[in-house]
Amino acid sequence: MNLRSILLLLIFFPFSFANAVTECDKKIRNYFIGTSQLNESVAHLWVNYEEGGSAAVRTESAAFDSMLSTVITSIVADKKVRVRYLADNAD
Fold first, then answer.
1. What is the pLDDT along the chain (91 residues), one digit of tens a residue?
2. Is residue 50 within 8 Å of residue 27, measured between CB atoms?
3. How far does CA 78 lie from the centroid of its chain?
4. Helix (H) or strand (E) holding 46
5. pTM exceeds 0.85
């Protein structure tokens, strides 16, 4: 094995596990947009799932508008959404 192969292996090997995620299809039970008692200056979108669990995104996030429209569309169409957890093998 030459030096170039070893360097490529060392560069790409650690990242192969860093991208592990878990995706699940969840039905949204309800959502709420507002502030928390701990941080009243920043609003969030909170989403609760029927099977348990929840998600939140800040209104300042670039993903806020698309997440809000996906949540509303999912509830109106009575469809599940795909949720991606950063942790691998999450429930």
1. 555 655 555 555 555 555 567 788 999 999 999 886 776 778 889 999 998 888 888 888 898 999 999 999 999 999 999 888 776 555 5
2. yes
3. 20
4. strand 43-49
5. no
> Residue 79, exposed/middle/buried by CB under 10 A (0-12, 13-18, 19+)?
exposed
Q: Which of 90, 83, 81, 76 is closest to 27 using CA atoms?
A: 81
The residues, ordered by sequence, that sit 6+ positions from 85 with a Cβ below 8 Å of its Cβ are 21, 22, 23, 24
Nearest to 35 by CA among 27, 46, 44, 26: 44
CA separation for the pair 36, 56 (Å, rounded): 11
The continuous run of DSSP H or E covering 14 comes out as helix 3-18
